Amino acid sequence: MSNLLRNPTLAGFTLGRYFTEQNGAVGTIEVPPEWDFVALPRDPADPNRLPQSLHRDQGFGVSAGYRSWEAAYVQHGVTLQAGTRYLAKAAFMPHVGFPDGPVDLTAIAWRIVIETPAGTVAQDWQTTAKGSYGHYEELYFPFQCQAQTTATFQFWLRSVYAGNTCEIQVLSLALEAAAPGTGGESVPVIGSAAAQPAPTPATAASSGSMGGSGSMGGSGSMGGSGSMGGSGSMGAAAAPTVAAAGRATLEQVITNDDITVITAGLRLLTQAFPGNSTIGDGLERLSQVLEKLKK
Known about the structure:
Blueprint: E1 14-20, E2 26-31, E3 36-40, E4 52-55, E5 60-65, E6 69-80, E7 84-97, E8 108-116, E9 119-122, E10 137-145, E11 149-159, E12 165-178, E13 189-190, H1 250-253, H2 256-269, H3 277-291
Parallel strand pairs: 10-13
Antiparallel strand pairs: 1-2, 3-6, 4-5, 5-12, 6-11, 7-10, 7-12, 8-9, 8-11
């Protein structure tokens, strides 16, 4: 199948910017052509405590030490066709060390997100099933597209807490049209108007669990043993609803920049409540809902 992504092996690089942490350490963000690199600050005391993005002989490395972080390689302008099953893929190697404690196989996670004007679908965060870090990892995410649209492909990585040093080498990314049955009968759906009622000002779009990982051969094709977990739909976006009495809805007035700033602040706020999963999960859920409003 033809890969719809441009520069899928993240070859080449340009300098994005440098950043300086409060302790004076300088980090570098390099960017592969055709891609953006998005890094979210997670330390409320130092918004420049970010992961680095660095070119490698093969692919790109997200490099960070002793910090909580979240980052993504993002590509815009990918055309999807109506009535088509797609398979998103990622191949990478996580090199993770825990100098001050035992190895935690849940500390580093990854997922694929596909964002479009017709709706957004996303995996739950996935962790390694290899039993240790330092191995070649493959991730699959099947979904169905019911409306012709333009997508943003996002491969997200994160370190849940600061007790590790790591570099995750991203080797290749892919988005391909797939056979109709790929992933089984139930996969996330983009643009399914029949399955998702138009939201009202008081009702947010529905969401579901979207797991999925599998085996990808060296050529980028899916092997027969590849497995894909259960999935669900995060709902198709409908035309903005005009509220009664001339009031604008949140969807009408909020901008993408507003959402980026607000969600970064919400995720920083979780650091003020370590160990409180109720607050942390609630703030993360609110962040995800706001991100669905991105235009």
